[in-house]
Amino acid sequence: MRTVRLRDKVIGDGQPCFIIAEIGINHNGNVELAKRLISVAVIAGCDAVKFQKRTPELCVPAAQQSTMRETPWGYIPYMEYRERVEFGLKEYQEIDDFCRKQGVMWFASCWDEPSVDFIDQFEVPCYKVASASVNDDSLLRHTRSRGKPIIASTGMCTLADVDKAVEVMGKDDLVLLHTVSTYPASYPELNLRAIVTMRSRYDVPVGYSGHETGIPTTVAAVAMGARVVERHITLDRAMWGSDQAASLEPNGITRLVRDIRLVEKSMGTGEKAIVESERPLIARLRRAC
């Protein structure tokens, strides 16, 4: 199995699971809220935080731009809403500085080519390709041209779709995430066995981007071979925003990291053997034959 290096972290078999706290747009356009979420991720023990970057005029279809929407800023056109939640240079400079001081990596899902170029100025360790963009060959090639590792989600994809994306991106410095792109995702649809299928098919590190409401299935994904885990985080799932309900609150992300690390410690070598702590019990409990 190939490995991928993100600064001082290595993603691959035999390595600790790389845990990403996705802030996405759960900051609702407020950089101070974004910093609070970064702090939550750091305290929980996450390896990185992730944002989303879009150029609204490129990413919002013309038919949706004037659609009215209830928001914290009132009843406004969808295009204005997208612009209000989009961070610019000043905000990302603050985020970059804050993450450096906190000692945590950050990067972003870039939904268009100008966004890739914008984020590139911050020397991020990698790029994320969102499930919605995994069939955008032009964006995949442009992202790859920056020379950084790529983590690509595969929600809304068949294996044929993933085959095509892998062909475009190449396997070097590539991580694939099994994903179900509903928010929140229902448990019968999670199909965690796809992680095993993808590991065998692509020979690259495979992870899991979960949008379910709970924790156990994400922990199970690690036991099934996920080498990266990504979960949305929020301060309160009742907050306004499309991704909040599928996110983990501070206690939830803390428990998730704890449980993943406990599972990793428990996996062992696969060799069936007597452990040293059992030997006194053998002498005391087993009858001589």
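(ticket continues) Second input and output from the same batch:
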Amino acid sequence: MVADCTVNPGGRAMLIAMRFWFMLGLALLASLPAWGQTPSVWVVPITGEITPATVQFVRMRVERANREQPLALVFEIYTPGGRVDAMGDIVDIILQRATVPTIAVVRDAFSAGALIAMSAEQLVMLPGSSIGAALPVVLDPLAPLGLSPADEKIQSAMRAQFRSVATARGRNADVAEAMVTPREIPGLTTAQELVTLSSAQAVQHGIADLEARTLREALTQLGYGGVTVERLEPTMLERAAQVLTSPLVAAILLAVGVIGILVELFTPGVGIPGAIGILALLLFFSGAFIATPAGLFDLVLVIAGIILIVVELLLLPGFGIAGILGLGALLFALFRIFQEGAVYMLGYTVVFGGLLLALAFWLVPNFRLGRALMLATRLKTEIGSAVTGSGTKPTTGLNHLLGQQGIAISDLRPAGVARFGRQRVDVVTEGDFIISGTVIEVLSVEGNRVTVRAVEE
């Protein structure tokens, strides 16, 4: 008996329908997160000094907004200003790269912050806020506060940038330009005053679009009432990087790092200065690579520079080529990483380095830890005396050593100690590096200065 395996036409239709609804259900489930997403506005705080870390922070938030498409991106601005190059990068990101509506809500926006605020599509002023005062300044040690106005070339470029951004966003270009260089604005400023606007003045003179008492009220006036507001605060790592890359902190870390390494090289076996120096340099470069556009090439330059300087100090003293190349590599890397801020940072580094060295010279003989690193006994010598194997004995002079040969009993870098017979004498080379155990010859004797050279075999 053969079983009938024919499928009922009605059952086949039912099977097809079940498959269709099953696939449709899977598709609906996959789309539920997108459908269930509450419309929101993202708030990006821009606070403190404008640095390369601020650029990285804004760039990452704008890129995320471009991917996830919130209703709007709000930049809450409260800054005294900052670096010109960082300002230009942020303005370019907001003007050219953001694909969602942008809003600037100003608590205070001075200098670089003013241009960043004006680059947004909508600008809202909160109660008691101000915007303007964008005169560019440069480092000047002779000026009362260490800063002086930039030359006309830089001011001209800044005026053009402020005018261009204001024009692109439909704002008052004349008032924006007067924020950079004093000029007369009827009813606002004289020819000797920079423009700095209160919240009401900013609206009156065509810089801001409206005033609002709170962020929520500003969103309501702009048509975003009732939406969810999500704040994109900096992460802990971003906050740390922003602090570490400020010119003042970066200069202190660099000075401590370099001095700590140098002290370690000349006092081997101690370990503490070297550990502090390495930690300071790690913090310095960690902040730089997190918060700036530094890349692998910059890291290679830094490592190569440090290696060349160590080689100059320990292996090839007196020649200078390795040290110059190492210093050049480090400076080039710093200018690539910090760009315009490198000049300020290096200036601060020199100042703090000098203060740190002076403090170290004072601390070493006056504190217990410093005294532990010092020689406990004093070698009392006079001109014309030499240290012998049995102690120090006066001599009638060292002229008798002229032309004699001896053995270097320490590395001469170029100074060191040599033995002539049983007599130990402090000697110095003409700048050459002579290793311990080399046969040397006395070239000249001037008082207690004995100049030697290596004897060629």
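Agent notes: The chain has a mean pLDDT of 79. The two ends are 115 Å apart (CA to CA). Closing as not reproducible unless the customer responds.
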